Structures are given as C-alpha cells and as structure tokens.
Amino acid sequence: MGTPAESALKRARLEKNLTLEEAVALLNAITGGTSDTSQLSAWESGRRRTGLRNRRGLCDLYDKPGDLLFAHQDGQYGVARALHHAQGTLVTRWADLVEAMTSVVTGAREHLVVTGSRSREKEYLDAIETAVAQNPDLVHTRVLYGPPRHQELAEHLTRLMALRNPAERRNGVRTLSVGIVDRGATLERFFVASEKQAVVPLPSLHSADGFDCGIVLDGEAAAGLVHHGREACAAARLLGTIRDVRDLPVRRR
User: Fold this and answer.
1) Source organism's superkingdom (predicted)?
2) DSSP class of residue 210?
C-alpha cells in the first residue's frame, strides 16, 4: 500500500517493482520517446502534467486507466492554466527582446528549451553555444518547425552537434535533443525557456516574418514551457548527427 502522499501513478510503478530508471526505459520503448527520470518523478508528484503520448504509454505500461493514473495532475491547475494565469512583462524594443532572450539562456542551469526555425541573432545563438559548452549538466532541447529559415541557424545547429553528441547521456539523461516537426497544419511556436524564466517573442507589426517584442514569464509559466517544449521534441523527428543537420534545406521565404 502506498502512503497518502503517493499518487496513483507512483503507486502503479511501485506495484510493478520498477525503479524510475526501469520505468522510463520501458516507457520510451513503448512510445519511442526520450523521457527521463526527472520527468517521470515530476509527473508522479504532480509538478508537471503528462503529455498525451506519454499518458497512453504509461496506461499501457501499468495496464491502468488514465483517469486513475493522472487524477492528481488533472485536479490541479496544470501547465495550460498556469500559463493562462501567468503575469508577464512586455518588452517592446528589438534590443530589449534579444537581451531578455539572452538572459534566459545565461541563467539556465538545469534546462534550456528553444523552439522555432527562424533564429539568427548572433549574440543569442552564441550565448546558447556558450551555455552548452560550459555547463555539461544543462539539458538543451531544440524544436524546429520545418527546416531552418536562415543559414545562421543551420550553422548554429551544426556547432551544437560538434559540442555535444546527441546519442550520449550524462547521469542517464540525454543532454542534447534536436527535433524537427514537419509543419503541415502545425503552427510554429516561438519561445526560449529555462527552469526559472522564459521569453515568448511576438510577431512584428511591421513585418510578417519578423519579431520585435515579446513577453517575459517567470515561475510556473516558465517551467510549463520547458515541459511543453520537451514533450514537443519527444514527438518530433530527432536529428542525431551533424550530417542530419547539414542535409536540412535552408527554407527561405
């Protein structure tokens, strides 16, 4: 019997006599994803809300219904409501936007998630490479929505692959994941998020393809975007080598 503080999701794992590491390995074998022990622990405690694909995988793994396994998550605010109720700070100048995005990168210690295929600001991209090079424990996730729009981004991704091998793990965790979502009807998402802060760039009023302002978010909202980005990457096609990146076309307007 679990203690009252244990969620049904955690009790289901313990009933199977599985460690976090064993459960994650079995889950990834079912889903084809890249979840790790920190995510599973957060799902079990209710600090994070499990995405649809991993919910299905966990139901299969534990042979239990989702309304039982995830009741502790669905009864709380969850990521979506946390973002809905978040209080953000608006930045309205291009220079301030780049500075805010770069600040998120330099402040990241555990997770750094970046989404979108249009980055090309040298200061910002250099900061990402420096963070990856200087902090081997930083888990960096990049989600592309279609091929890169600019040569600067394609070259940045190549340098990231040279800094870290996506196939390697540190303390059992993949610390570099680059995934690409085939656009189709999927809307491109733009944000940079760490465990403490995030910036969501907003389209420019003057250019359909540009960004010159954005929203700065803290706390739960930032952590929620980290979770969202990692779930998006788990569902994307992973790029595992420099050759994979170099084979991407640079998709200009």
Assistant:
1) Bacteria
2) -
Q: What are phi and psi of 122, to 5 degrees?
A: -60, -45
Question: Contact at 8 Å (CB) between 115 and 191?
Answer: yes
Question: For the chain, how many residues are written?
Answer: 253
Per CATH, the homologous superfamily of domain 81-246 is Endonuclease Chain A (3.30.870.10)
Nearest to 34 by CA among 242, 241, 177: 177
In the chain, % of residues over pLDDT 90: 53
Boundaries of every domain in the chain: 8-76, 81-246
* Residue spans of alpha helices (H) in the chain: 8-15, 20-31, 37-45, 52-62, 66-69, 71-74, 78-84, 94-107, 122-134, 151-163, 219-234, 242-246
Mean pLDDT, rounded, for 145-166? 94
Q: Do 205 and 131 contact (CB within 8 A), yes or no?
A: no
